[in-house]
Design a protein that fits this description.
The complex is a heterodimer. Chain A is α+β, with helices and mostly antiparallel strands. In chain A, 37% of the residues lie in helices and 19% in strands. Chain B is an all-alpha fold. Chain B has helices at 2-23, 54-68, 72-85, 90-102, 106-119, 124-140, and one strand at 40-42. The chains are: A alpha+beta, B mainly alpha.
């Protein structure tokens, strides 16, 4: 009987061990942690001649966790002495090369950088970059912010310090330190409380990784046996490496900062292999209790604990006297002030949607891949700010919108900004407030573009290739007179916004003033299918039907499609697909995916130039002239768009090297009482003014065979003194008028 | 006799005249030369794309160094950075096209050459270089057909 009981007991004990072993193996083999993927912005170049305000520079540095100090001692610090700046750059692993951070200095005078040099060698630097900002991390449900690091990359000093402080006999015991338990028992009994633990590193790892933190007897028993099993199956090196990557160090918003690499970044803005003795000791101090020894919350306790650790290290021969004394003088770190990891939330979701085409959610949440994007964080912050302010101003100043806002109806908007030649998305704001409405109004909302589509009618008209070598020109006269079409729904007549017909008008006037009637007439003369073909080639993917009213934009497109289509004007006839992701890289640095900009020829450069002239006219004296009265003076073109019943307000505009589109409206399509000029244009102006401040005005490139001629406005013929109204216009060579107005 | 002879001479000369006129290869038309009215002028080309800054040149130079050592991924990255810094600098597109060709992306290479062509339209030397390379790509294009 006793033998049977004994055998049963043994059987259940081994079964129990088997279950524990299975638990260890199933969780510990292969991928041990879900490492979040990281989404980075673009880097920011610094060079002599770079135009940047002191405010913008400091803002960028702050967002990259650079701290202002009097004297530089470590990576992630900068100092300012009047116009003289010195920065100790972070190291950073770029997709194709590793950058080792070093000190640089320069002068910032009159918002321009000069004398940029390597502070160590005093060599002139042509260009150097501030590393990309971390825009967002993609976590799993555990929300652990961790970057895995191998034991080889962890400083020996840190490894030794952890072992000395947490588990002196780590390399000697078998997972449980019986001597340590006895000693702790003795100390706790004599102190009358739980002042010392007897847990080994292995036990701590088991507790944190497999079990819970509740102090129960069963958990303790499980912990002990699992520690023994871990030691049987894994080497000391593996256990220590896992431990150092598992430790919880701090809280950053909703995510926990775990592992020594992430802790090194969080507290010191550097990689763990760059930590010095004092910094290592600070991290070791936190292991016991990150809350109690937090440098920001309890600096006195943090310093005392750190110094105690340094003393013990010195006493054990791990730290020379001089290094020990220097380490005691080191200041405590100021942890990264950013508690929010995510900004540009709509952009992040846009990027994630693209990533999900190739990578599952599981991979994004666990493999620690790094995604390098085209986002310019400063432009992004500007865009978010002006969009918010713009909408608030509209709702405050317009009684109709004010009433709607008080009823709980929020006006929505979107802004996207790109580099025309490359399609690089530099700012992306998909809505007013992501926390309240996650719907992306830039790439998911289909809205009627209205008049913002009109430039494609004119581009098709001006293109010699589309018109058998006999294109319309800027001297062409269009009738703005009563017009009607037969449609399946009956007779349809376009009307102008002002309700008036303007008679015979030049092409320029028709577009600048956004006349519906003459534009519709022109569209039907040019050929609706030609206009549709051009729009499609430019990037409008929505299926367009060749209805007589096509020119007025009655179909639906996303703002992103429209922004892409507009790139053909500043990019001299080339259309570039919007691009947000540049590289996807594994955590080991292998490039998984490269995305490069794609552009194709849609218009002749000459036609693009003529369109730029017309669209500049829209800003100078057309429906977009508010841009100039609000103080935007740079060379730029654009077009307003207002849909019927004022449901949508659009403005798409560009300088030679930057394009931005703004849309404003209600999600339920209710009327806004806003036009493109009153609703969207002010936001566009505020954005463009902010991002071009201090920058030189760049002119639109002129292709080879462009002529300028003085013509007579009423007739479109060459001007003489006998004609009535001279005006200068531009022509593709061979299309200029040859007759004089008085012939 | 002499009268007949004079008539024959006259007839001969007349026929010769007609013969030579009809054998003339070019028609001489006397029309006034066509001149552009003074109101019409050629716009001078802006050379803004060529006023390139030192940092852009530096990035292109770094890209070229990587290209020469066959580190095409790094070269691609550098040329893209140069373009991000100055999207109107034509040579950066040309060199990126060369890299794309090495990376066996001839279609992309040709697209980039198109951009370079537009941006360098006032530089004959560059235009020749672009055309030569485009021709080279087209002649090798069959090698990329899978």
């Amino acid at each position: 009987m006793r033998t049977k009981v004994f055998l049963f007991g043994l059987f259940f004990f081994f079964a129990y061990l088997f279950v524990l072993h299975h638990q260890i193996v199933s969780k510990f083999e292969g991928r041990r942690w879900n490492l979040p993927s990281r989404i980075y912005s673009d880097s920011f170049p610094l060079f002599s001649g770079q135009v940047i305000t002191a405010g913008e520079l400091k803002d960028r540095l702050r967002h990259l966790a650079y701290n202002e100090v009097d004297s530089l001692e470590a990576h992630g610090q900068y100092s300012q002495n009047g116009a003289f700046y010195e920065i100790f750059l972070h190291s950073f692993d770029y997709p194709h090369h590793k950058f080792i951070g070093h000190r640089i200095f320069f002068h910032l005078i009159g918002n321009q950088i000069s004398d940029l040099k390597n502070a160590e060698t005093h060599q002139d630097l042509e260009i150097i970059s501030l590393e990309p900002e971390l825009v967002a991390s993609v976590f799993d449900e555990h929300m652990e912010d961790r970057s895995f690091v191998t034991l080889e990359k962890i400083p020996d000093f840190l490894e030794q310090a952890v072992v000395l402080i947490e588990d002196e006999r780590f390399y000697e015991h078998i997972g449980i330190d019986f001597l340590g338990i006895l000693r702790a028992l003795f100390v706790n009994l004599s102190e009358g409380g739980l002042v010392q633990g007897g847990s080994t590193i292995t036990q701590q790892l088991v507790k944190n990784y497999f079990l819970h933190h509740r102090k129960t007897f069963v958990r303790k028993i499980n912990e002990m046996f699992m520690a023994l099993l871990m030691e049987l199956r894994y080497s000391k090196k593996e256990i220590l490496e896992s431990y150092l990557n598992e430790i919880y160090f701090a809280q950053r918003g909703a995510a926990s900062v775990s592992g020594v690499q992430e802790a090194a970044q969080f507290y010191f803005s550097k990689n763990v292999d760059q930590l010095n003795a004092a910094e290592c000791a600070t991290l070791v101090a936190l292991v016991k209790s990150p809350g109690m020894y937090s440098p920001s919350l309890h600096p006195k306790q943090a310093r005392e604990r750190r110094d105690l650790i340094l003393k013990k290290l010195h006493e054990n021969g791990l730290l020379e006297k001089r290094d020990y004394e220097n380490a005691l003088q080191a200041p405590l770190p100021i942890p990264s002030s950013r508690t929010e990891l995510t900004h540009a939330p709509y952009f992040v979701e846009f990027v994630k949607r693209q990533l999900k085409e190739q990578y599952s959610q599981d991979i994004l949440e666990s493999e620690g891949i790094r995604i390098f994007t085209t986002l310019d964080p400063e432009k992004q912050r500007t865009a978010e700010k002006v969009l918010q302010m713009g909408l608030t101003t509209l709702e405050r100043d317009r009684p109709y919108l004010n009433k709607k806002a008080k009823e709980g109806k929020s006006l929505e908007a979107g802004l996207v900004a790109m580099q025309p030649e490359t399609g690089f998305i530099q700012a992306y704001v998909g809505g007013r407030d992501f926390t309240k409405n996650q719907f992306d109004h830039i790439s998911l909302a289909k809205r009627q573009p209205g008049s913002v589509f009109k430039p494609f009618v004119y581009a098709a008209a001006l293109d010699p290739k589309q018109n058998s070598g006999q294109p319309w020109t800027l001297a062409s006269i269009l009738p703005d007179e009563e017009l009607s079409f037969s449609t399946p729904q009956g007779k349809w007549s376009p009307k102008n916004y002002d309700g008036v017909y303007h008679g015979k008008v030049l092409v320029r006037e028709a577009l600048e003033r956004s006349y519906n009637v003459s534009t519709t007439w022109l569209a039907n003369q040019v050929g609706l299918k030609k206009i549709i073909a051009l729009a499609k080639k430019a990037g409008i993917e929505t299926e367009l039907k060749p209805y007589p009213g096509l020119a007025l934009g009655p179909f639906e497109v996303t703002p992103l499609e429209m922004a892409q289509a507009y790139t053909i004007f500043p990019a001299q006839g080339l259309s570039s697909k919007p691009l947000a992701i540049r590289r996807v890289v594994t955590r080991e640095g292998e490039v998984l995916e490269k995305k490069s900009f794609e552009s194709k020829r849609v218009l002749l450069p000459e036609v693009a130039y003529l369109m730029n002239q017309l669209l500049q006219g829209v800003l100078d004296h057309g429906t977009g002239r508010l841009a100039r009265t609000r103080g935007f003076e740079k060379a730029a073109g654009g077009k307003t768009g207002t849909t019927s019943d004022d449901r949508d307000a659009w403005f798409c505009g560009f300088t030679p090297d930057h394009l931005a589109l703004v849309w404003v409206g209600y999600d339920d399509n209710e009327d806004t009482n806003l036009s493109g000029a009153s609703g969207a244009l002010p936001i566009w102006v505020d954005y463009m003014k902010a991002v071009t401040v201090g920058k030189n005005d760049v002119a639109f490139s002129v292709p080879k065979n462009i002529l300028r001629a003085t013509i007579d406005k009423p007739t479109g013929l060459l001007y003489t003194s006998r004609c009535s109204e001279p005006v200068e216009e531009y022509f593709i060579e061979g299309t200029e008028p040859l007759e004089f107005c008085d012939e | 006799m002499s009268r007949i002879f004079r008539k024959q001479n006259f007839l001969f000369l007349f026929l010769a005249l007609i013969f030579f006129q009809n054998c003339a290869t070019t028609e001489r038309v006397f029309k006034p030369k066509k001149t552009r009215p003074p109101h019409i002028t050629h716009l001078k080309e802006q050379k803004s794309s060529q006023d390139v800054s030192a940092p852009v040149l530096s990035l292109v130079s770094q890209g070229l160094q990587a290209y020469k050592t066959k580190d095409y991924d790094l070269a691609e990255w550098r040329f893209e950075e140069a373009i991000a810094l100055d999207s109107k600098y034509g040579p950066a597109y040309y060199w990126l096209a060369r890299v794309k060709f090495r990376l066996e992306e001839p279609d992309r290479s040709l697209e980039l050459l198109e951009t370079a062509r537009v941006l360098l339209s006032d530089d004959d030397r560059w235009l020749r270089r672009i055309e030569d390379f485009a021709e080279h790509i087209r002649s090798k294009e069959f090698l990329f057909d899978k």
